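Pipeline run #58 for the internal structure catalog. This entry was flagged by the ingest filter as a single-chain record with no existing model, so it goes straight to prediction. Upstream metadata was stripped on purpose; only the residue string is passed forward. Reviewer on rotation: M.T. Logging verbosity set to normal.
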Amino acid sequence: MFYKNKKQNDIINLELLKSYEIGYTFSNKPIKRIEIKPEVESKTELLKNLSYKISKIENCELKSSASKLVFSDGDPTSPLMIVGEGPGQKEDEIGKPFVGEAGLLLNKMFKAINIGREKIYITNVVNYRPPNNRKPEPSEITKYAFFLREHISIIDPKILILMGSTAMESLFGTKIKISKERGIWKELIVNNKTYLTMITFHPAYLLRQPDQKKYSWADLKETRRKINELNLKI
């Protein structure tokens, strides 16, 4: 009688599990028995939707004078995210960030710490080229900072590198100076999550002021050290 009741209970329990619409893996191991269903929206879809929202922005001088939306480049699954200022002429022509002279220097900088460009994720504060390559206006930085924060949340990097004062101001405000804040690990809170952040000089600035490269090199070495410390695979 006991064996019969046990067998009936096993059948009932199995049918109950099926009714919950979850996968169940039978195993002798005590952990990871329940397999959670994947999220409905993939990172790719979220990025596609964000790009579409930016393309529909209104009353924007940047958009009206540019030829292309410059959204991003690189690996969206990378633990390292780079944020620059805005597209230049070459970026506006091709539709990708950091492909001009500053982009070539960026590639060399990260290659120096054994990281290929294809292993990182790159975007800018503003996604349209400012007229005559001028610096984005404060109102433009504020407008696009909303999209940038969403961008960061989607990529969810382990390390965030802000290159230049525009990237710094878009996320930390205008009351700090890059000369004093660069090279220091900071905590940036975006949508209730904290991101480990480093501020450093923009490659375009280094092309104009090559004597400042020694400071950027120090920042790069510290970034490499932190990557190793966190055991990140890049």
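catalog note: Residues 16-27, 30-40 have pLDDT under 50 and may be disordered.
catalog note: The beta strands are 23-24, 34-35, 73-74, 80-84, 121-124, 159-163, 185-190, 193-200.
status: ready for reviewer M.T.
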